Amino acid sequence: MLRHLTPRAVWRCLPGRRASRAESAAVARLLAACRDLDVAPAPLLEAWGRDSRGRQERRLARAARYLQAGGPPAGLTDAVPGLLHDEHATAIRFGGQTGLVGPAVRAVLAADTPAEREARLRTRRLTRTAVAWGVLTFLVSSWMAFRVGPWFKKILDDFDSELPAATRLWLETCDWFANLSWLVGPLALFGLALWFSPALRGAIARPFTRRRRAATAVDLLAVAAAAGRPIPAAAATLAGCETDGRLARRLWRAAAEGPPGAVLAQAGLLTAAEGRLLDSTPAPEPATLARIAADRRNVLRRRGAVRQGVIWLGLLALASGFVFWTALAFVTPVFDLTEQLAGERP
User: φ and ψ at 335, to 5 degrees?
Assistant: First the structure.
């Protein structure tokens, strides 16, 4: 039994973690296939849960019980928190109301290209590095502020040494940091809330993913247009399925009558140039919408890569500056003190 107790198995059993994107996509794909083939998904989810471990096993078992009790697949997000990511849940809700579960889920999954997955992986690495660097800096700064700072200041005061500007600034920063020690408790509580609440993590991350979610909404509108649904009606339906309130308001504005490109651009789902392209192209609207969404994702991915590079450089500059400043604050007075003692020797 102990040979199965790997670090990954322990991690999967910890509370407060939602399903991975691959697990969420697999559940969405299963629900879409069952809808297309008119097969009950509950027995499949129950069997899948028996083959899973940890949190995913419990989520799948709850989903199976919910569906066996007659619950609709569109309500799985509320019934089983953490089972589906927002984009997959929106696709299932939208497909359930329009009768296009299969096409909607396939459109969302097709947009998740290897390049998109690599971009998310880089973002996670950057986030973990920033958090690790922040925690390490906090621990080192705390130790210096409460232990090294007072001790070092007492030594320099005993020798009546004039402190260099870097050292004075460093000691003042230590005093300022010590006065903020009361923030440790609230920050620790906030960290625990983030750990145990996928909903809170999603709410914090939502503003940073809204543009990508808007491209997914355009994909779903293209699916509805390809099936012959009017874009205003599809936008109103999608607004009721969207979990992001600001994006839902944009979709409600997109439900107005008028040229589709102009209306979508006025609602903020397309740029003015994209709206003119949609209204003037001789190609069918669904193909043009899908191409616009794909181009939008490519642009967002390139901008994200540039932004991540800038953040990496910023973190490197901050880390280097912190180390250099600390070394300068310590080494400079030590050199001055050494020269003073050497001058006093006969």
Answer: -65, -45
Mean pLDDT of 320-324: 84
Query: What distance lies between CA 153 and its chain's CA centroid?
Result: 43
User: Over the chain, what is the mean pLDDT?
Assistant: 82
> How many CA atoms, within 13 angstroms, populate the side-chain half-sphere of residue 142?
11
- Comparing CA positions, the residue from 273, 225, 268 lying closest to residue 250 is 268
Burial category of 344 from C-beta neighbours within 10 Å (exposed 0-12, middle 13-18, buried 19 and up): exposed
Helix (H, G, I), strand (E, B) or coil at 80: coil
The whole-angstrom separation of Cα 343 and Cα 346 is: 8
Give residue limits of the domains in the chain: 13-84, 109-346
- Beta carbons within 8 Å of 45's beta carbon, 6+ residues apart: 27, 30, 60, 63, 64, 67
Residue type, 221: L
CB of 277 closer than 8 Å to CB of 259 = no
Q: How confident is the model at residue 173 (pLDDT cuts 50, 70, 90)?
A: confident
- Comparing 57-71, 84-98, 167-181, 277-291, the range with the smallest average pLDDT is 167-181
